[in-house]
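Hey,

The postdoc asked me to send both predictions to you directly instead of through the lab channel. I've kept everything plain text so nothing gets mangled by the mail client. Protein one:
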Amino acid sequence: MTMFGGVRFDPEDLPRFAGDLFDHVAAGGTAPDVDGAPFADAVGILAGSGGGAVDADVFDAAELLGYLLAVVHAETSLPDAVFVEPVDARERRSRVEEAVRRIVGYRA
């Protein structure tokens, strides 16, 4: 099992990783930095994954992971007060997972 950003990194289930990372950051944890060995290690694992999460003709593994981190950062940076209607943490996590599904082309 590989850890990245304080949570389990599974290149075969990027939506769940993003949801777990959202929970971690929303609870006060720090988001992973894109500089350094942990990011490079995660990129290498993602690039070598057999699950088809990375389509090299569309995204480099580093770009894909960067986009995923950006989605988590965007959602965790929004204060509750900016929402027109209240949105609980469970729904916000679900939205992060759905955004990542759409980015990587997951059908489930």
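Protein two:
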Amino acid sequence: MVDQRSLARFLPLLAVLTTAYSIWLLTFWPGVLGEDSVAILLEVQNPEAFRSGKTVVWYYFVKLLYGTTGRVEAPIGVALALCAVMYARMLAWYWGQGLYKTLWFALLAVAMAPHMIYFMGTLYPDGLFAVASAALMFEVWLCVQRRSASAGSLLMMAVALPFAAFARPNGWVFLAPLAIATLWLDARSRRWTLLIALAWSAAVFAGNQLHKSTTQETQFPLAAFETAGFLQKRAMNELWALYPHMNDPWVLQKPKVSPATIEALSHRGPLEKIQQYRDPAYWDMLVFHPNGPQIGALSDADKQTVVKEFWTYNLWQNLPDFLASRVNVFASAALAQGGFPALSYATNVLPRVSSQSTYRLWQWSTLENWLRKVHAKSYAWRWLLWTPWLGFGLLLWALTRGLHRAEAGLLLVSVPMFIQWGGVFVFSIAGEYRYLLPFFTLPLVLLPALATRSKPAVL
């Protein structure tokens, strides 16, 4: 049975969010498109000849909505609607619990933040993934607290799970807390929760059999990106080469990069080109620049050599450089120092795909100019308004409290998010803020979880 009071709180919030998102989409019609958008659209148009590197869930989501309509605004509009539903669910719960400060913060600083609407309104999976991961973790925490899953919780799990767990390659970690949470649930809730998880997992497995996705590798990009950094020329090393007697013979004897690595990388051209096109925060220049080394075209054998030599030799000869690089890439992402698809980049994308969409169909020029100024102001203050550091801080607090008090709900949220944090830090090869969006939305889960005074479920 639907709780009428909960519905009375949910519907007005959904109306507010839907109105705001609709106005934004109508203004920036057909939404924001970038190079990753081109890739997924081309894959939908010609799946036999092209692969975007995105997951099968994102492929079928775009295929269902763009492939059947020819309009890029269709998947963007549905993604915005799904985000509005998931946000409204959490906001309505805060309202019902009297968490009014959390409600206003979540509504104004997160759900209606200009950059958050921008990412949700871009044909990339990252915005939807960030909202869905928060929605799923919120339901996991709430169900463990209650020791049961309401109809609303089950519905939100069914909506959020495919995008939280399968829209990005690193989402699989969210399956574990969902499964473990069933240990605290009553029999009926356990059955329904597991049914939802198994049904979506089976659907994704079947989808992968019908359409083999080629998500980006993890180890080779990291090994190649960091090895390119290890190859950068160092003035001090050149000085020591001029004065070899400055150091004892056993000092600096070993090469910084193994001969096997140099041989493998040299198959794509001179090492000088790799040195020239290595950017401290992006690996893209090594792979996609038309005049660059395009090391993604290395043979499988050469890629395996680069990876093996990285883990067994090159990393340990350059550990300070590796750690410094990891900090630099992570800080570039956390402080949003990278690039973002322009609000008008759809003019570059639409002619390259077979879309029926019309750029700026509604011609709301005055509102567009005003919203552009809002986005520019938001960008200028991104170090504060976009910050994932609140999420990082709350995560450490939640993890510490969860371990100290053995609170199951907090640990089921904080442990997988801590794993995500570590994964981004270690394996990210581009300083992209969008990779940290789940930590911007994480306070929607942890603020109420840390503020609750009800007796928690314990391990």
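Summary for protein two, as requested: DSSP finds 24 helices and no strands in the chain.

Thanks,
C.
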